[in-house]
Amino acid sequence: MKLSVLFPAAAFGLSFGLCQTTLAETLLVGPGGNPSSLRQAVAAAHDGDVIELLQGVYRGETVVVPAKTLTLRGSGKGAVFDAEGKIAEGKALWVLRGGNITVDNVEFRGARADDANGAGIRLEAGHLKVQNCRFFDNENGILTSNDIDAELEIDASVFADAPRVVGGLYHLLYVGRIGKFSVTGSRFQHGFEGHLLKSRARESHINYNLIVDGPGGEASYEVDLPNAGEVWMIGNVISQSAGSQNPVVVAYGAEGGHWPRNTLYMAHNTLINHKTLPAWFLRLWRDKLPPDTDVYAVNNLSIGLGVFEWGASGHFSGNAHARQSVLVDADTNGFELAAGGSLHGAGVDPTHVGGQDLSPKAEFKMPVGTRPLPPLTRWSPGAFQGVSR
User: What's the pLDDT score for residue 386?
Assistant: First the structure.
């Protein structure tokens, strides 16, 4: 790999020119356009290149990325893109046209648009992988198109601090009708009126995340799956704040099934209600869903006032309901089962459920990320198995 401020042949001599089509380049970008701007680097980059974003704050710098295969990577403590009233094409700080893009160690702040759909990243097509990134105070952290061929993969990232605008209905993450979406080891917190995580994807894989609105949060649904589809939710902590604007924690099929196959697999999640009024931990809109829609829910743990299975017909086993005292300390993110409780080992075998292995292979690890679980023979309800390390 070669390193370039912008144009590698000029920087390293003509002898490198013959290799440019086969060797990946690293193009350096810095705040204020020094040594080059992000727009310049994107225009100059070829498939396979890496755009290295030097540590610092990039104020009002937006970009439209054409369909290429690129990695955009923040160095050191990361690159922070602060909108400061600027947005590309009236859509997002970064608009991605397609291709195969990886974004690593970048922070997006303050995206606003005239249509109230401003986003840190707008994915219009292609495959996007986001890792170790942070999204704060955006109308949408990430917003996707409805391209059936698009895919979004998120790992170890943070989505937080929805704008506190009455009637805004901003979502921390809004996934449209794309082909496949996955999020792992990530945190969602401090919504306002909108949802923490909303996905209309054909396939949604939501595993080992901390979806906890937290003190001061006022989200509506914590997880909204309005068009159903095939959904796997394994090993998440999903917590509704005392200020939540809606009693539903996980919603499936509120707008009817859009996809030919609709199945919800929900295993080893810890669902918490901090409100003094009852929560609807899982709500299904059976009257709007196709009759062949299946629901498999095993070894989920619901905490606080509310109902889990009521009105949500399907295959339910090993689920438990308890008071908050069964956890170490939910108020300080101690979501593990307290020592000596009766729920340890009280779950059922989740390895053969509806033709799926729904056993957790990992657990969320603070502040972001996951840690692997060893093979187990006894299972406890909830997101944490109490395995000593």
Answer: 85
Task: Flag whether 388 is in a domain.
Answer: no
The torsion angles phi and psi of 19, rounded to 5 degrees, stand at: -95, -5
Q: Which domain holds residue 175?
A: 146-372
Please tell me the predicted confidence (pLDDT) of residue 4.
Answer: 54
In the predicted model, what is the mean pLDDT of the chain? 93
Contacts of 84 (CB under 8 A, 6+ apart): 59, 60, 110
Angle 354-355-359 from CA coordinates, rounded to 5°: 85
Residues 6+ apart with CB under 8 A from 103: 71, 72, 73, 94, 121, 128, 129, 130, 131, 133
Question: What span, in angstroms and rounded, lies between the C-alpha atoms of 153 and 131?
Answer: 8
Residue 8 above 60 pLDDT?
no
Predicted local distance difference test score (pLDDT) of residue 20: 43
Alpha carbon 383 to chain centroid, angstroms: 17
Count of domains forming the chain: 1
CB 246 within 8 Å of CB 254: no
Q: Is residue 194 part of a domain?
A: yes
Residue 225 domain-assigned?
yes
What are the tokens at 194? 């909108």
